[in-house]
Recover the amino acids of this structure.
């Protein structure tokens, strides 16, 4: 292993689209940097903003949320809830003085293995540029 | 802590064993809190593997099981079945995915091993918080409500009605048969003769297991697969309402024709002898093809694609019935001059091409044109048009027959609201998946068939009704209980503030508000367990079973080890 900084990123993936897309990336043997740690939820609508905040406060350098494309949600509209929450979270981050670039929301379908690999690698690179999350040293909750 | 957790790592042949140092994984995790045994096995999903796991659960008296192998989308159910067999509640088990998203995705073996350890730690800490969830069984009603008494509804009723299954066939108008009954004949390959349809209507009327409710509409529907309640309002019996209990519903409300008045250049409703297709069907059925002045027409223009651009889709059946009209006109009024104005021909079925070629041979003119405009001129209809290349031309005819787009029937949006079903951008009902699940809706036990889903010919409508019936026959077996989802949401009364935010995100209508207690209540039989309500509850009163906050939080913490 090299000494390069590997960020710690948490990814909340919905079971039906994004998680299946991530599986497909694996089945297709697409290689990615091991910075993302996946947590499966049934629907992106289940992603509580608290998970995102807790993750960042407990030491994550970035948090990814992934769900089905608009109109494709297995539960019809859960991904729209996720999108609204994501927008609110971003606003909250800005108001609190956190770096809102450390969170992101993507739509990844079950057939988009390459897209999963691409967005997670790109996000990882961006977080790498931002460096370690300062919040974990500055804020104690 | 009295947990006795068993952790089993699957080698998956070379798939995992070559990419992850399993021995190191075992060494690390065997000392984790609560872990009694940590072992590896060649292929856990094989029969040998499953027997091995079941024996281990019993021998080691495991309280929790963690399997590190493939994606839960692959073998979660396999191992849950093993748990069941070995007497362990299947929800006290966690499958950790170290293959797809770890072994196969991380090229560096050391990195992959490190990641696998993290994932397994997360599984171990999560599983200790799992609750033994129990399957529930509910009685179900095998009876079916069919909304719409056209050919789709009739076909479904005939497929479903039987000794153990009653069918309620609700029809808005006074009689069964729908649009098809208004036709004067069918296409030749469909047998031309409408008697086949009449026969089906008769069969359904004589079937003692079908209760036909004409002049009736569905007012309200509540419930879920196996246990729906519907309120049917009769328009003839002085608005009398009737409540029925059914287990499944088929929506077969068909279509209506686009109103050509919306496109003024066709002159419909203004120029005499401009008819729409249904008016001509009925004129033909009456046997008197006559102009307003009482004379038979000597020339007729058939105008395809009326409203196609406006609606944004092809209605699939108009080209063929327009050819049917042209040939009928030739048969009934020898010497008549018939021209078909089309922009694209739609001849999708195997018999269609021949039918079209024959029509051409019989002297029917096919003119590919656009920018059509119908004008009254010297008591005739002047059809002005532009052909390819932009050249303008015109012909004068005695009669013009428009083929308007098929659009959703009158009460589609009202019914969508009652049943909580989505519509697509064309206003028709939206299927779960056009290819993979073409007659299902997001509501379990509610299906849509025929033109309620979009333009279709008669055979396609019949196929869909047979398919919807098949779904019901296999999921709603008389006397058999149904098992609703176990991983559902539950609301803790003491925390619920009654803000009702959760009601707005539940797409399935599984949450209702208890006015007396002032709190929201989940109907576990309807809930599908997406967890949207959990994510949005501002007071943290809702818990999604098997995806609770502490369970996911532990996963987050382990991810950051």
């Amino acid at each position: 292993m090299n000494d390069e900084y590997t960020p710690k990123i948490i990814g909340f993936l919905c079971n039906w689209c994004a998680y299946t897309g991530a599986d497909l990336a694996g089945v297709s043997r697409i290689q990615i940097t091991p910075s993302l740690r996946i947590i499966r939820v049934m629907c992106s609508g289940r992603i509580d903003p608290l998970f995102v905040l807790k993750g960042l406060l407990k030491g994550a350098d970035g948090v990814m949320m992934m769900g089905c494309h608009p109109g494709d949600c297995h539960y019809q509209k859960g991904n729209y809830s996720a999108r609204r929450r994501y927008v609110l979270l971003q606003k909250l981050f800005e108001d609190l003085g956190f770096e809102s670039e450390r969170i992101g929301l993507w739509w990844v379908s079950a057939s988009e293995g390459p897209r999963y690999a691409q967005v997670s690698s790109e996000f990882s690179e961006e977080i790498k540029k931002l460096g370690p999350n300062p919040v974990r040293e500055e804020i104690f909750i | 802590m009295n947990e006795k957790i068993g952790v089993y790592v699957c080698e998956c042949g070379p798939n995992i064993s070559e990419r992850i140092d399993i021995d190191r994984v075992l060494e690390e995790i065997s000392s984790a809190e609560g872990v009694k045994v940590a072992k590896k096995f060649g292929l856990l999903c094989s029969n040998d593997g499953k027997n091995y796991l079941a024996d281990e659960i019993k021998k080691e008296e495991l309280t929790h099981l963690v399997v590190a192998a493939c994606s839960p989308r692959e073998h979660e159910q396999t191992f849950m079945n093993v748990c069941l067999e070995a007497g362990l509640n299947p929800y006290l088990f966690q499958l950790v995915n170290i293959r797809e998203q770890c072994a196969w995705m991380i090229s560096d073996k050391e990195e992959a091993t490190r990641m696998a350890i993290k994932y397994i730690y997360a599984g171990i800490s999560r599983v200790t918080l799992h609750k033994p969830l129990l399957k529930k069984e509910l009685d179900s009603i095998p009876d079916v409500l069919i909304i719409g008494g056209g050919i789709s509804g009739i076909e479904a009723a005939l497929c479903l009605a039987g000794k153990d299954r009653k069918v309620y066939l609700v029809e808005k108008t006074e009689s069964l048969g729908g649009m098809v009954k208004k036709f004067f004949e069918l296409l030749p390959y469909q047998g031309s003769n409408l008697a086949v349809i009449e026969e089906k209507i008769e069969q359904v009327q004589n079937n003692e297991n079908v209760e036909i409710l004409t002049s009736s509409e569905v007012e309200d529907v509540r419930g879920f697969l196996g246990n729906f309640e519907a309120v049917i309002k009769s328009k003839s019996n002085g608005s009398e309402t009737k409540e029925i209990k059914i287990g499944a519903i088929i929506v077969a409300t068909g279509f209506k024709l686009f109103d050509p008045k919306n496109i003024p250049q066709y002159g419909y409703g203004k120029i005499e002898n401009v008819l729409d297709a249904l008016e001509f069907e009925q004129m033909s059925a009456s046997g008197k093809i006559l102009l307003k002045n009482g004379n038979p027409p000597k020339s007729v223009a058939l105008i395809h694609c009326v409203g196609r651009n406006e609606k944004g889709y092809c209605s699939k059946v108009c080209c063929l019935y327009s050819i049917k009209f042209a040939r009928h006109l030739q048969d009934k009024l020898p010497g008549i001059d018939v021209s078909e104005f089309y922009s694209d021909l739609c001849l999708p079925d195997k018999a269609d091409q021949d039918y079209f070629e024959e029509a051409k041979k019989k002297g029917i003119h096919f003119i590919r044109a656009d920018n059509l405009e119908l004008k009254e001129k010297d008591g005739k209809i002047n059809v002005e048009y532009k052909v390819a290349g932009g050249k303008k031309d015109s012909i004068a005819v005695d009669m013009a027959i428009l083929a308007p787009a098929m659009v959703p029937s009158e009460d589609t949006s009202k019914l969508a609201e009652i049943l909580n079903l989505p519509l697509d951008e064309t206003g028709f009902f939206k299927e779960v998946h056009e290819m993979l699940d073409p007659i299902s809706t997001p509501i379990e036990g509610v299906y849509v068939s025929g033109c309620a889903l979009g333009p279709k010919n008669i055979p396609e409508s019949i196929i869909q009704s047979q398919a919807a019936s098949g779904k019901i026959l296999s999921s709603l077996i008389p006397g058999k209980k149904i098992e609703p989802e176990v991983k559902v949401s539950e609301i803790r009364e003491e925390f619920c503030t009654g803000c009702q935010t959760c009601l707005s995100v539940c797409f399935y209508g599984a949450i209702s508000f208890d006015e007396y207690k002032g709190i929201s209540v989940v109907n576990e039989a309807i809930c599908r367990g997406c967890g949207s309500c959990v994510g949005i509850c501002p007071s943290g009163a809702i818990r999604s079973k098997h995806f609770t906050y502490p369970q996911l939080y532990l996963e987050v913490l382990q991810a950051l080890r």
Q: What stands out?
A: Chain B touches chain A through 47 residues (CB under 8 Å). The longest helix of chain B spans residues 109-127. Chain B has four domains: 5-133, 144-254+409-475, 264-285+296-395, 489-545.
